[in-house]
Specification:
2 copies of one chain form a homodimer.
Chain A (H helix, E strand, L loop, with lengths): L2 E7 L3 E8 L4 E8 L6 H18 L7 E8 L2 E3 L4 E5 L4 E4 L1 H5 L7 E5 H12 L8 E6 L3 E7 L2 E2 L31 H4 L1 H14 L4 H5 L9 H9 L3 H25 L3 E5 L7 H14 L9 E4 L6 H12 L1
Parallel strand pairs in A: 1-4, 4-8, 9-12, 12-13
Antiparallel strand pairs in A: 1-2, 2-3, 5-6, 6-7, 9-10, 10-11
């Protein structure tokens, strides 16, 4: 059984795990990232963490095939550089070279959303399918595009940003500087924004009552639970949410025609309530009605997708 | 020098040519498609045309590596089936099997827009680039997506329909049944629609004057020429057109991050006037401003792209 290390490099924590070739985590651990320190320090800590998880899993470095890193932002896969990672304040960091000072193994890097998609393709909801798309509905909307079993991220590593498809020209302003991006309408943040507005204008709504008028307590679950309970304001927001999510998924189908689309992130915890509504509206808007089209499902690996997918970069390379 | 036959199967004509491995057409010819006849008759005519162009190019069937066909609609590449081609009234037609009754060579099929993109990648505007997208601004908006040198059309052959990205949820109704598709705003048809409206409400505009009030004579060139001449109505339409085209191109960059995007079709004859306006607005909306991004250019092969790209299916397979 071949073994790999996967590293989930986040703005808050660095997670690392020893993963077998089937995508099973044998042992994992995490440390705070300590953003703001020199990158050399952070990468030294990452090296220590990697050595620690290998040891605690009962192996030595020589048992491991490679290290894979899932990083926010843009990665140069070939040079194992992080080109640009906004929430680490990193630009052009030679992660592979630096990390090999501490653990002498091949290092692969890809974007965190891409490796999460890879994890779902290797051993999660998209297992057994050649072409898949995983979208993550959280603070923003992340996405991993798997073509022929490999993450696709374009010529400069900046692709697969489905959260920044423009679905409403001149629509709501996005953090990226454009207007009308998919994530403005389909992230958890969008549900919260609309939930707050509804609670303000409709203090009689279940959304307002659930948080006892404390608008800062409104999260995606509060809004979706209100919709589930049949609350008028909750339903209005949820239907609009499903409508925009459908239009994005139709666009993804018309562009990629994948075998399967997995939906992850906080909002996906709504499970069948989300999936049933989505399937119903997607069916109505499919272009080639006579042909098979992508199946929709909820992603399976949750937060572990980061470590697993990063580890699997070594398997597919 | 290896030789291939490329067939451009259209609703009006069937074109065929002998093409060398560099994508140069040695000889070509065409016949009317005669849509509505049994598919066996049409494919027999196609076989005769292929034999004729091989002979007139000075070769025999055994000199040819393979036949490639660019077809409207959806193709099953592996079985050499046309799954669905609306303007031929074809569904599930075993083109490869039928054609081999007349010319016994391997047969490859792909969508006509995909093969046009392949032609540009092999020997046109996108030559030398690994990942490219060609969009064709004509009656509709067609597109060919080339990933790692090969056309990408998804798991069921129904992808790469960039004309049906939804760029304006609940926007203008599209022939596909959805609303707000990219092609509703960026096809020649869109320019004509808006040109007619402007000519109606502004009979003093250059658009109305150019066609002497005969609205049926308004085409994309009339509208763009009015913009070039500084006509207020023409400029309004052109700016809006560039705005939507930019937003679609930004979406393409955020999704595919290709090396290059080629723009073809009737509207692309506006050349630098189109490209300069587009480059200016695209630069303003690029997400990762510190990274290199796709270059924009005008496609080079015009109508020959269909025959050349179809022929090249044999080269890449």
């Amino acid at each position: 059984m071949k073994l790999y290390v996967g590293v989930d490099l986040g703005g808050t924590n660095i997670g690392a795990g020893v993963v077998d070739e089937n995508g099973r985590i044998l042992h994992k651990d995490e440390i705070p990232t300590g953003v703001g320190r020199p990158y050399q320090e952070i990468i030294k800590d990452m090296g220590d963490l990697i050595k620690k998880v290998i040891k605690n899993a009962g192996y030595v470095v020589d048992d491991i095939v490679s290290i894979g890193i899932g990083s926010p932002g843009v990665a140069d896969k070939e040079k194992a550089f992080i080109v640009y990672a906004n929430n680490l304040y990193w630009k052009h960091i030679p992660v592979g070279e630096e990390l090999r000072k501490y653990v002498n193994l091949p290092v692969y890097i890809d974007n965190d959303a891409n490796v999460a998609g890879l994890a779902e393709a290797v051993c999660g909801a998209c297992q057994g399918y050649r072409n898949s798309v995983t979208i993550t509905l959280g603070t923003g909307v992340g996405s991993g595009i798997i073509i022929d079993g490999k993450p696709y991220s374009g010529s400069h590593g900046a692709g697969a940003e489905l959260g920044h498809m423009i679905v409403s020209v001149d629509g709501i302003e996005c953090t990226c500087g454009n207007k009308g991006c998919f994530e403005r309408y389909t992230s958890a943040t969008a549900l919260i924004r609309e939930g707050k507005e509804a609670a303000k204008t409709h203090p009689e709504s279940l959304i307002a009552k659930t948080v006892k008028g404390d608008l800062d307590k409104i999260n995606a679950k509060v809004v979706i639970d209100a919709a589930k309970a049949g609350d008028e304001e909750g339903l209005k927001i949820f239907r609009r949410y499903i409508h925009y999510l459908t239009m994005g998924i139709i666009t993804i189908i018309n562009i990629f025609d994948p075998d399967i689309i997995a939906i992850g992130g906080g909002v996906s915890r709504a499970g069948d309530f989300l999936l049933d509504a989505l399937n119903k509206e997607v069916e109505e808007h499919i272009f080639y009605k006579d042909l098979p089209h992508a199946k929709l499902c909820i992603s399976e690996l949750g937060n572990d997708a980061g470590i697993i997918g990063a580890a699997m970069l070594g398997k597919i390379n």
